[in-house]
Amino acid sequence: MNARVVVADDQSVVREGIVMLLGLLPGVEVVGSAKDGEEAVALVAELAPDVVLMDLRMPRCDGAEATRRIRKEYPGTQVVVLTTFADDESLFPALQAGARGYLTKDAGGDEIVRAIQAVLSGEAGLSPSVQRRLLERVTTQPPSPGSAPEPQLPDGLTPRELEVLVLIAEGLSNLEIARRLHISQATVKSHINNLFAKAGVRDRAQAVRYAYVRGLAQPPGSTFT
Questions:
Q1: pLDDT tens digits for 83-100?
Q2: Fewer CB within a 10 Å sphere, N or C end of the chain?
Q3: Reported pTM
């Protein structure tokens, strides 16, 4: 069954181009398009699409606010952000509003389809650059007083456990991980045991698959850029 998609973008040329591109791809049916966030929310109410491809900087109602309203009022519809911007001021408000995917507009059609399929499967549809920025944010930047909460890590993983998981997915050994993170091998083993328990995996192969499925790492040969 095709994923039913609404495209929201205030630039008509861009919006029409995305609609045309998606119309050529298998597994996707564009059921509507909107020129701003207000129209996007109205179309979701009318058409109940599976996914909205959401631009962020739009008049009347921006993409983050539209995402918040859609996820609150129509939780059966997922949101994948498709925007020019990947800065913190765009990325984190969109994720905190409930977007499950985040791509920039240089993404190819296959990337968009993968992100749509991922969010419909309950996973994250994030480009590698967004994954890296998210990892950097949660592992290097302490929260400031009164700051908005960070996006929650899956299954209660700590930032350090997430770092270790990503390095496992990159194929590093315990010794290599210890050297990369400047910690002892015993500490690496402790983090691995903890993340295995939280993620419900038994070995490194399952941990790697867990990282791929949840969008925390990309398999070798991925065409994401």
A1: 887 676 778 888 888 898
A2: N
A3: 0.62
